[in-house]
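Input/output pair, single chain:
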Amino acid sequence: MKDSTPCSARSALGFNRFIHEGGLNDLRMGGHRFTYFCHDDLKLSKLDRFLVCSDFLQFFPNVTVTALPRESSDHCPVLLSTASVDFGPPPFWFFNSWMDRDGFAKVVAIAWLHFQGYGTTDCILVAKLKHLKNKLKEWRASELPKEAEDLTKLRNKKPRIRWVIDGDENTIFFHGYVKNKNMKNSINGIMTNGCWSTDPNQIKKEAHRFFRNKFKEKWSS
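Output:
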């Protein structure tokens, strides 16, 4: 039986400073919450993890970490995977800043008023929203070159504006931070009936079941 090692606050502070100054990211781990089991599973700890730099996240944005079931060892094997998983087409993203751009209101009004559909009311509404989404995608695609031209003009306008754009928003650290945040918000696996599953269909079914039960209403007879 292993004896527990006393924790040094000074060493922990120095290690945390090393992680911060090195710009390292602690990858979110799926599977098991803890990786080390001691004293007949009375003491649980997360000792094993991966720390990666921003360049790693640039090359492998879909990286996942999974703690696998342990057998004879008191540590869980930890698997790092860079394989991409197909969850289907990406969802449509809408940004509130679009409403402040020229031409947005006109695109919405024309798409909404000129749409013609048939069927029940709910089916017409779904088809109308889908038609509006497609028109907004077309408008967005036409706006991208204009935005790139506006950014170029801002970079050449004043040194301070150029520093704000290039120094704060387009650095490797900034993009690494955004990618790390998106990675933490993504769902790469889910625990169902005590088993860790990374199958996209299983994840979708479990998410649908959870929210269906969450928003189910009881009707009084």
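The CA atoms of residues 64 and 81 lie 5 Å apart. Residues 21-88 form one domain.
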